[in-house]
Structure formats: structure tokens, C-alpha cells
Request: fold
Amino acid sequence: MTDELLLYLLIAFLVFASYQLFYIAFFMFRIRRNNEEAVYHREPVTVIVCAKNEAYNLRRNIPLLLEQKYYKFQVVVVDDCSTDDSQLVLSELKSQYPQLYYTTIPIDNKFNHSKKLAVIVAIKAAQYDHMVFIDADCRPASDMWLHYIMTHYYDEHQMVLGYGRFERRKGFLNFFIRYESFINAIIYFGYAVAYRPFMGVGRNLSYTKELYEHSSKFRNNLSIASGDDDMFVSEMGTRRNTDICTNFESQTFTEAKTTWRDWIEQKSRHLTTAPFYRKGVKFLLGTEIISRQIIFFLGIFLLILGDLHTQIIVASVLFVRYLLIIISLAIASRRMKECRFWPYAIFMDIIVPWIEAFAAIFSKLSKKRTTWR
Reply:
């Protein structure tokens, strides 16, 4: 191999590595502590839960929502075509908690709908302008969850992105799901602060009815199987109207999938909203994924075939990149009280894109779904 070709490959490596360093520095160091000095307006709030055959989780988690330490709120549950004991559970809870309201979407064999219909029904039933969304299988990290979410409604904020973490269990799949969720949260929090929001998680998300009324894509697209939260955040979120809430007390917990097949199916449903991201966001996300793989393979190639000078340059750049990733994960872990993922950053940085790519391919090959489960 000629020295000229090695030089061109080294230049290409440095170009893509520069983008990687910029991306990490610009987006992955944005996890911040709550603004304790912000003056927020205390507003009543509606907590929204959409459930389908979740009798067990409703009995376990709804009381945790109804016993939040917040001055004025209601909980709205939409029972979406359940065939289990959800109605009985909700009726029993209603007798104990007057601030609970629930409604039912009846089964219609002629019409299969997505979860978003339940979300729309819940929003129409909401008594208050400020709404917080959580899934039926999720529990808040504390009885101050609602309080901390609502403290971010100051200045012009009309949307708050929270963190939905997974319960820690044994096994690599559980570790992988928790790591991927954590790194994704760092990224979408970073975009919300530094550029513009493009996604959130429906198990810990808040926005106002006023913002919802101004949406068009979200309200008019009932066919999408999942990812209604991403679609809304991408369409309506801006740097000015969106804030992030990352402290532990404001987080939610849920059980992760226990088989790779279930996780891949879930991931493929979430990927159906990727085409709705804004062009700038899609460009940045796509370029990051591609450039990461290029510098990985080019780096190995140049470390093997390059001269000593080239090897030193490549090794130094890769060292700086992984050092930045490790530092960003360590900072985020400390501020969010999350598991210490940073010791595994190099290994996970290599394998995660390939597993996610497999899920994306599965999403393309799967039949179109309109049901939310």
C-alpha cells in the first residue's frame, strides 16, 4: 500500500473523528442539575395513563400516582379495549381516590387503532392544561415526582422531558437495555438543550394542552403503531419551550423486556417515528452513526498498516474520543444517580450500533402494524 493512499485514509479518519469529537462535546455534556433559583408558576396538573390489559400494574402503580405530594392534580386513566380485570381494579381505586377519573375505549372488531387514540381520548378528558404522561407499567421514583416535573414550567416552557429508567435485573440483556436507554437519554436531553428536541419517552413526559392544540402531524396521524411521544416532541419542541428534568426524584421505573425478540419488536415499533424527525436532526444522527463506524474500521486499518507516526496519531485521537465518552457518562451517571456504565463504554460503543441496526432492519421487514401492543 502506497504512502499516498495511507495519507488520504488518515485525512479521512481525522475528518470523521473531528465530527465525532464535536458531536460528543456538543451534545453529551448537557446533563445539568435542576435550576433551584428558577421561579416557576405552581399549576394544577393532570396525570395521564393509557392502559391495555394492565390490571396488575394498575393495582400496583396507580396508588403511587394518586399519593403524590402535589397541591392539586387528577389522574386520568384510559382503559383501551382491555379484556382483563382493569375495569374492576379502576372501579375499586375510584372508591378510594376521588381525584381518579377513568374512561374506556370499547372493543371494535372492525377498527384496529394505535395507542395514540387512547392518548387523544385522555387529553380530551384532562381537566387541567398541564399534563404529565406515564405508562401503566411504570412507577415514579418518589412521591415528589410530580412536584419536580412541574418545577420546570417557568419562563416560556410548555414541555418537559423526563427520564424513564429500567429496573436493574441480572443478565446482559437487561444491562444492554438499561445502557441503551441511558445513552439515548443523554443524547435527546443534549439535543433539547443545545439544538432542538427530537424525542422523549411517553413514560415520563409532560406538555400543555395549548401546545397540543397547535400540533398537526401528531393529531392527524392515527396509524402509527408506537412512538407518539417522539412524533409530538419532534413536531412541537423547541429550545425555548422545552426543558429537561433529570434528578432522581423526577424519574420513573419500569421493567425491561426479558427476551431479545420482545426487545427487538419493541425497538422496531419505536423506530417507525424516525422518518418524522426534522431533516437537521436526521442528518446529525445519521452522520454520527456513519462516522462512528468509519473511524472504528479506519482506525483499526491504520493501526495495523500505518507507520509509527500514523499509529500514534490514530491511537491518540481514539483515546481522546473514548475519554470524552467516559467522562460524559460518568458525569451523567452521577447527576442522574444511574448505574456506573462508563467502565463498559468502549465495548458498548462498538456493539450497540450493530444491534440497533439489526432492529432497524427488522422494522423495515416487519408488516405494518396499527395496534399499540
